[in-house]
Amino acid sequence: MNKLSASAISTIDEIVKKHQGKRGPVKLMLHEVQHELGYIPFEAMEKIAEGSNVSVAEVYGVVTFYTQFTTQPKGKHVINVCLGTACYVKGAQEILDKICEKLNCKVNETSADGEFSIDATRCLGACGLAPVVVVDGTVHGSLTVDMIDDILVSAKA
Ligand code: FES
After folding, report:
1. Which atom of ligand 1 is nearest to the CA of 82?
2. Which of 21, 30, 111, 145 is the most exposed place for a label (fewest CB within 10 A)?
3. Does the beta carbon of 87 lie inside 6 Å of ligand 1?
4. Quick check: 1 pLDDT over 70?
5. What is the span of the domain harbouring residue 23?
6. Exposed, middle or buried: residue 156 (CB in 10 Å: 0-12, 13-18, 19+)?
7. pLDDT by residue (tens digit) across 101-117?
8. Are residues 91 and 152 in the same domain?
9. For the whole model, what pTM was predicted?
10. How far is the CA of 140 from the centre of ligand 1 (A)?
11. Considering the chain, what is the average pLDDT of its residues?
12. Same structural domain for residues 82 and 152?
């Protein structure tokens, strides 16, 4: 595990202090740490547990239950491939496999150059555009395998 920077630790400390004593502080703290650092390091879970009087296991349970939290640093660009039913029947798995192959990266991981993270997600609510991939918040619909190169290039531009 990489050691956290002093600024990341002080960011975590400030967040914990800010939400201490509020109702349901764990999720609030986790949201803010995720927003500030881009992921939830183990040290943050320890500090949040201590500041909220719950066990680290409970905090870890929340982190793993909600897909918006991640324990690994994300790449500069985040690719979300929808594997909901409508997208799946229209070839989402093939698209996901191709993206993984092109970036030499597995699902839920970040490419070696730190440029891309690949996530598979459930229905994004845009089934009419299936298959759907979201890159850095931009929705790409009716996707085909041939369009992947252009999408990856434009994400980096
Ligand atoms: S199943 Fe993919 S957007 Fe609904």
Report:
1. 2
2. 21
3. yes
4. no
5. 6-65
6. exposed
7. 999 999 988 899 989 99
8. yes
9. 0.68
10. 12
11. 91
12. yes
